[in-house]
Design goal:
By secondary structure, the protein is of the alpha+beta class. It folds into three domains: 3-124, Butyryl-Coa Dehydrogenase, subunit A, domain 1 (Orthogonal Bundle), CATH 1.10.540; 130-242, Beta Barrel (Butyryl-CoA Dehydrogenase, subunit A, domain 2), CATH 2.40.110; 245-390, Butyryl-CoA Dehydrogenase, subunit A, domain 3. 50% of the residues lie in helices and 15% in strands. It has 13 helices and nine strands. It has helices at residues 3-6, 22-39, 43-49, 57-62, 75-88, 90-110, 113-124, 143-146, 247-278, 290-319, 325-349, 361-373, 378-390, and strands at residues 130-133, 150-155, 161-173, 180-187, 193-199, 205-209, 221-232, 280-281, 284-285. The strands form two sheets. Strands 1, 2, 3, 4, 5, 6 and 7 form a seven-stranded mixed sheet that branches. Strands 8-9 form a two-stranded antiparallel sheet. The longest helix is centred in the middle third of the chain and has 32 residues, at 247-278.
């Protein structure tokens, strides 16, 4: 960044970061230094090659940014961590929230004392990695009622219990390389939803990388086939008995994806503003053209409005830990809609350079499409919020 850019106001135009405690601001500064040195110079190359940077995980773990208890940090800090990661590399942020906010959090919320003792220390230190296997090839938004993956209970003559899993999962982030998956299946006998800690290397588990993606290329999404996979009873979450048990996890991860929409806009604004200030056309910087300034202001307004909404969500999380899903759904729907508009403005400002990853905006623009869709599509979240404010469901 040039000296001229260094002197310009932060993209945090209303100084929301001042709401953090001093230790939290210090920790956020550590994260920014890590991202600037270990991620930003290489992120586009990883994205172009569709390679995940496993080698940086020990350094990421050393920052001690997250955990099932949030390490005594506020919800605002936790959200800004994900936003800041996304601002630099959406794929790394996606890995982080899948591992921490879904897999690790599930161990904390639903795991037995034995499961936590056995698995949590390595998962928190990123010595092992986790995934969240819910979506199926034929069931995404309707997976609650349409889950096809089955779990069949088998009791041996000596009374020992194990489960046999059959079915398929799709779009499983971290799925190609993870050590464990939190996998959801329907009890073949009772129809209840069961949760399992699946060792991803068990016989009968086939993992295939999903190729030809135009977004989140660094994330390793997998298609999972399960053919008579035997899982021990000790690896079942005994406290999970229905799909509603997933709502605690999905609510938390949906909040974090809305934070990703904030980070994506901040990243787009960073790139677009730098380009507009430094790029000259007709003998003057692009930033001196009125229409360019209008687009930059619209991007900043969208990002600031989204950030303000998420700051309030974070406050509600700390005041009322059981935040209402409809509030979360509105946040995800609104922030991703604003994000889509913001990245489109950013791509436009860069002109032809906006469609090649050399200038970063193409990567930001493409990754936004994944954020727009996952953790509940914009349409589904709109209908969840709509149901709450009308008392009438338009989903089914």
């Amino acid at each position: 960044m040039t000296a001229a850019l260094d002197s310009l106001p932060s993209a945090d135009f209303y100084s929301y970061e001042r709401l953090l405690s001093a230790p939290e601001r210090d920790k956020l500064a550590q994260l920014r230094e890590f991202l600037a040195t270990e991620v930003e110079p290489y992120a586009t190359g990883w994205w172009d090659e569709a390679e995940f940077p496993s080698h940086i995980l020990p350094k990421l773990a050393a920052l001690e940014l997250s955990g099932p208890d949030r390490r005594a940090f506020s919800s605002l800090f936790a959200g800004l961590v994900v936003a800041e990661m996304t601002r630099v590399d959406t794929s790394l942020a996606t890995f982080f929230l899948v591992h921490h906010d879904l897999f690790v959090q599930a161990l904390h919320d639903f795991g037995s004392a034995e499961q936590k003792e056995r698995l949590l220390p390595d998962a928190l230190a990123l010595r092992t990695t986790g995934a969240f296997a819910l979506t199926e090839p034929d069931h995404g938004s309707d997976v609650a009622g349409g889950m096809a993956t089955t779990a069949t209970k088998v009791v041996a003559a000596d009374g020992a219990v194990h489960w046999v899993l059959n079915g398929a999962k799709r779009w499983i982030g971290n799925g190609t390389f993870c050590d464990y998956m939190l996998l959801w299946a329907k009890d073949a006998e009772t129809g209840q939803i069961r949760g399992f800690i699946l060792d991803a290397n068990l016989p009968g588990v086939t993992r295939t990388k999903i190729e030809h993606k135009i977004a989140l290329r660094t994330v390793q999404n997998a298609h999972i086939l399960l053919a008579d996979v035997r899982v021990a009873e000790r690896d079942r979450f005994a406290s999970i008995g229905s799909f509603s048990d997933t709502n605690v996890l999905l609510r938390g991860s949906r909040i974090m994806v809305a934070w990703q929409a904030v980070g994506q806009q901040l990243g787009a604004f960073d790139v677009a503003r730098a380009y507009a200030v430094e790029r000259e056309q007709f003998g003057r910087p692009l930033a001196r053209f009125q229409l360019i300034q209008r687009q930059l202001v619209q991007m900043l307004g969208n990002a600031t409005a989204s950030l303000g909404m998420m700051v309030r969500i974070a406050q509600l999380q700390d005041e009322e830990p059981g935040a209402v899903m409809a509030q979360v759904a509105l946040a995800k729907a609104f922030t991703t809609e604003r994000m889509r508009e913001s990245v489109a403005h950013g791509r436009s400002i860069l002109g032809g350079n906006g469609i090649v990853t050399d200038y970063k905006m193409a990567k930001i623009f493409a990754d936004a499409e994944a954020i727009y869709t996952y953790e509940g599509s914009q349409e589904i979240n709109t209908l969840i919020a709509g149901r709450a404010i009308t008392g009438v469901s338009a989903i089914t």
